[in-house]
C-alpha cells in the first residue's frame, strides 16, 4: 500500500461527511461538534483541492469554510471584546494612567 494519496483522502473525507449528514437527517447529532466539523472539513477539502491542482475549487471551499468557522466563533470574539471593554473600563474608573494592554 502506497499510503494515502490525494484522491483517496478526498474520498475518505467525502464518505465521512456524507455519513455525518445522513446521521443528522435521522436525528442523530453530535451537538456543537457537527457545527464546527463541517467548516473544518470544507477547509480540509479545499486544501486537498489546492494540492491536486484544483485551485479555484480549493480556494472557494477554503473561503466558504473559513467564513462559516468565523461565524461559529463570533460569540467567542464578542466575549473577548466584552472582557477587554470591562478591563479597560475598570482601569479608567480607577484612574490608572497605565494601559491595560
How many H/I helices?
A: 4
Characterize the quaternary organization of these chains: single chain
**Most strands sheet:** none
Mean pLDDT: 80
Order of helices and strands: HHHH
Q: Runs with pLDDT <50, length 5+?
A: none
Strand content: under 5%
User: In total, how many beta strands?
Assistant: 0
Shape from CA axes? elongated
What is the helix fraction of residues, given as a range?
A: over 70%
* Structural class determined from secondary elements: mainly alpha
* Span between termini: 54 Å
What is the gyration radius calculated from CA atoms?
21 Å
What this model shows, in words?
The protein has a domain at 6-73. The termini are far apart. The longest helix is centred in the last third of the chain and has 21 residues, at 74-94. It has helices at residues 6-25, 32-51, 55-72, 74-94. The protein is elongated, with a radius of gyration of 21 Å. Helices cover 78% and strands 0% of the residues. By secondary structure, it is mainly α. Helix 1 packs antiparallel against helix 2 (32-51) and helix 2 (32-51) runs antiparallel to helix 3.
Brief write-up:
This protein has 101 residues and is mostly helical. The protein has helices spanning 6-25, 32-51, 55-72, 74-94.
How is the secondary structure organized here?
Elements: H1 6-25, H2 32-51, H3 55-72, H4 74-94
Helix pairs in contact: 1-2, 2-3
List key phrases describing it.
mainly alpha, 101 residues, single chain, elongated, 4 helices
